Amino acid sequence: MRGPAPSALDIHTDAGGLRAGTRANIASYWRPWLRRRGLALLSDRGVTWGVLGLARMHCTLSTGGIASKSAAGGWALDAFPEHAQVLREALRLRAGDARRSASARTAAPRCSGPAACAGRPPPGSCTR
Fold first, then answer.
1. How far is CA 53 from the centre of its chain?
2. Largest CA distance in the chain
3. CA angle at 76 for the pair 93 and 106, rounded to the nearest 5°
4. DSSP single-letter state for residue 42
5. Fewer beta carbons within 10 angstroms: which end of the chain, N or C?
6. Phi and psi of 67, rounded to 5°?
7. Residue 114 gets which letter from DSSP?
8. Where are the alpha helices (DSSP H) in the chain?
9. Angstrom distance (rounded) from CA 75 to CA 64
10. Among 26, 24, 72, which residue's Cα sits nearest to residue 48?
């Protein structure tokens, strides 16, 4: 191995430091990131980065473990079943599946113009 000895690095190994650092990351990076992104959040990259990145932060705060984004997404499926659709979509995109999602294929058909839309809404491993 190359580089300095691990003891020479400023690596925090205490649970309190991990929680504090994770909360600080949410406040200093994720909150401003969400405010700045707007419609970019709807891109494939925005979905995978945001959904799985925040799942990773929550996984760390809940379990004290550090997981990959994919592992944290799997953990979040159990922790937040009400958000399973967006979590599965983010995991699918992260795995490199470029096909349209099942929800996009089965969504209501898009309106073809203002008259057609009248009265219709717009279309639209971490361990415990």
1. 4
2. 69
3. 45
4. G
5. N
6. -125, 160
7. T
8. 15-25, 31-37, 44-63, 69-79, 84-94, 102-106
9. 13
10. 72
Q: How far apart are CA 22 and CA 11, in angstroms?
A: 14
Comparing C-alpha atoms, which of 29, 64, 79, 65 is closest to residue 50? 29
Residue 94 burial (CB count, 10 A): 19
Q: Does residue 71 contact residue 94 with C-beta atoms inside 8 Å?
A: no
Q: How far is CA 120 from CA 43, 44, 108, in A?
A: 25, 27, 11
Task: Quick: pLDDT tens for 23-46.
Answer: 999 999 999 988 887 777 788 998
Overall pTM > 0.85: no
Mind listing the pLDDT tens digit for each residue in 41-94?
A: 788 998 999 999 999 999 999 999 999 999 999 999 999 999 999 999 999 999
Structure tokens, 6: 């691990």
What is the predicted pLDDT for the residue at 6?
A: 77
pLDDT value at residue 48: 93
Q: For residue 68, which of 80, 83, 55 has the smallest C-alpha distance? A: 55
